[in-house]
């Protein structure tokens, strides 16, 4: 969730959580809106994984009906995303044997035969999924078609995403959706300060360091910066992105 620090200075969150905080929906239903939350930049995708046992016969989200599925803990961002996806395919928690486990315990239970599938939102390759794929046959369930288009049209914090083939052992390329890791701040922060932070993030030397430091660092690009917004840009960030042509 957007940290208290993000209300005063830059902080990290996911695009879905930021959108809910700003609008008072989702995880923030019934709570005060964080109306001063502003986007500096979208950083990289946090991919929606639906991990399933390869022998469970789950080829689409619709096939989750009647299956034992973990949708993460109450209060998590993943559980709200899971409900959105299920609803788009005409399902609810009542149509599955829902479990409410974190990804680690979900993977362990699936390995032991007590679970057919589970939802996980995070960057790939996810270490826990890589570990499971090395010890059992798994598949990733695609989130595609008119149902996915409906989600994309309704929720601006989602984007299309593809998990490349063999990201996880034996799993082919899988089309799905993603939310985004974001750098956010408070609307009251000075425009010049946020402009300079944004400009520094996309300076040539910073970009080289990010690309060399981690696989996801390569995704922190100008092109990705203005996707999956979900909340308004801070004027300082908007000014920079308009100068470089990323925003029109």
From TrEMBL:
Q: Which domain of life is it from?
A: Bacteria
CDD domains attached to this UniProt entry = PBP2_TAXI_TRAP
Regions crossing the membrane? none
Q: Sorted alphabetically, which InterPro entries does this protein's record hold?
A: TRAP_TAXI
Name of this chain's protein: TAXI family TRAP transporter solute-binding subunit
